[in-house]
Amino acid sequence: MEQAETKLDLPPVSADIDLSVVIVSYNTRQMTIECVASVLDHRGDLNVEIIVVDNCSKDGSAAALRESFPNITVIDSPANGGFAFGNNIGFEKASGRYILLLNPDTRVHPGGLETAIRYMEENADIGIMGPLVRLDDGTQQSSMIRYLSLTQLFFIIFMPSLWMRKTSLFGDLRYADLSRGEINSVDAVSGCFMLARRKIFEDIGGLDQRFFMYGEESEWCRRTTRAGWDIHYNPNVEILHHGAASTAHMSEWKAVEMTRGHILFLRFTRGAFAAWIGTLFMLARDLVRLPYYGFKAILNGFRWDESAKPWLARLKFEMRSIVNLPKGQAISRPAPSEIS
Q1: Most CB atoms within 10 A, among 10, 101, 134, 273?
Q2: Residue 138 domain boundaries
């Protein structure tokens, strides 16, 4: 297994700050403004600092945030290094007793932050906590996550029964067999809201920024549990998640990055050979779909339609990855003294 340098240079903890909220923004100006406003409006009696790291947005996000909220910290990232890279920059400015990773396309509700902090205070064995997540239409987004494994990949790809694939034995990745209305101990929680106690950052460091996007939250949770902490899902805390605002739909880019994240998670936690086998399974999954998309292309005058393009991009990436397994990005974040 390949280890990354995830050590952080954290500032001293402040007795005056209960919670540091770190938000990484990329071309989500209005949503980020609304997210920050929801934190400020619903912080209750907590002393909260908000740190927004702008990943080289082109929509004027940083300037708009500084104008709208002069008392928060807005950092211009030197590069768009992805989710882990941006969050690590924010962590190194955080001085709160607890640190919250919060997506810019989320909204917190009244009492939610206070309930979350109180739950962590009452349960000293919990390192990271995630909430119940609802989408715009009121449906619940699955935010409990199992670690990806070769067994799960095998059954997800080759098990013909959808019902069987939703069981823990045959590959469920989202805990379909657990009640979403109860507190549960899980492998990982969604990266849209991850409340962590400061000791986690001191013990195991930050996110692995070899990931650009997808997979880093599961890898971080795995390191957390291996260090002796629990990960909990708590439905008594609820947020709204507009969902994938900066990666709007299943584009070709997103299909490839999600696959890259799966491969990197397996490589960094199970080793290169396991990652290669996992890539082989994913390639087999997409090769099985070739007749379907190929037939549609023939009917379409030998042209791929829009629905086929993400699949085709992923298939090509998997074929390249079998020959040259992804290693992750190599990027260095600036020292805390170099950013303001």
Answers
A1: 101
A2: 19-142+180-245
